[in-house]
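User: Show me a protein chain along with its predicted structure.
Assistant: Here is one chain, sequence first, then structure tokens.
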Amino acid sequence: MIDTNGALLTDLYQLTMLEAYFRQGMADEAVFECYVRKLPEQRAFLVAAGLEQLLDYLESLHFTSDELSWLSKTNRFGSDFVRWLANFRFEGDVYALPEGTVCYANEPLVRIVAPLPQAQFIESRLINLLHFQTMIASKAARCVLAAPGRMLLDFGFRRAHGSEAGVLAARANYLVGFEGTATVAAGALYGIPVFGTMAHSFVQAHDNEVDAFRHFAHTQPENVVLLIDTYDVEQAARRVVALARELSAHGIVVKAVRIDSGDLAANARQVRTLFDQSGFHDIGIFASGNLDEFALETLIDGQAPINGFGVGTQLDTSGDSPSLDAVYKLQEYQLTPRRKRSEGKATWPGRKQVFRRHDEPGKMSSDLIGLETEEHLGRPLIQPVMRSGKRIHPPPPISDIRAHAARELASLPDAMKCLTNSETYPVEISDAIRVLADSADARGR
């Protein structure tokens, strides 16, 4: 049986190159780095995510007997090469930005140091894992900045591009400050708080709306959040008031109502006024329905009385920027710097470090990308995380990653927090890297 998370989750050219390396005995140490060439439009920063899934993949990488059998049957590869793959493992070193770290264009998310065949083969899955969660975490961070102090929940699983994407999106969202997700598997896998209420179909399945609310409240007495826009929002809110008085005799409290359509701000104001006039100041209002950071900003700036938001499709697909220009490039082989000079896609050679500087109030002020061996002012961001194919430290608790991400977002300059027309953060390339690039060019490689 072929494992959809196994070694064959790659591009064909990784295997064709691998066989060529095998035939030529090319197995010296190689250095690759993964980074984003340029930021998407209207993105002032990115947030690194996906490292833990990458390390899981690297530690467990191997070809199963079924995978090897399938490769043999394709008649594309020599039998000796397929036999060699039976013992293929990742035995290299990994250096990375900690998850939740704010980063910018050309700054390595990950550096891989390993024998060339190993370092090359992992490219496709590595980009697949880092690209997706970094993209989603960066979008989610903008939502967090747009709605400070509000509960944000991930509602995007059903519109995500596949099951893995939905679960990993929930993780990425939680890392940067969302309070939870509706995706149950993400709760089981990562310990993310899970939230959920009811669908419009639940209300429609009852002969009248109040019976739907009552049945739900008695079934879920600790989680009474009622969906009130199936028919008429104002009428439903009045029914909630009457039901709340009835339920209080049974010790059941209505926590909140959810509005999922229409003019969310106007509906929320109407409902808030009704609840307050009826003495139910503690019933919260939760909103959902095709929200993104721009819609959140509009609602917050308009002082809509909404306590929390469910953000779904636009977040888990990163609707306005559904991809990053993420690449994985060879920087060194046989201890010799390597540089690509393709028009518009040239690379900087060598093993790199990112040095981050902060101003006196603790806000990040500039980054310098230098060689690993250089010393510069600023905090070095890239840290060793794997030696000889094994993690250096156990996976950090997800709460620690969230705390780190919160500190990172708090250290953003105010001008970088704008959703549009934000300033460009200064990132410099060291003189030593430029000299190394010139020497690589002079060799004509």
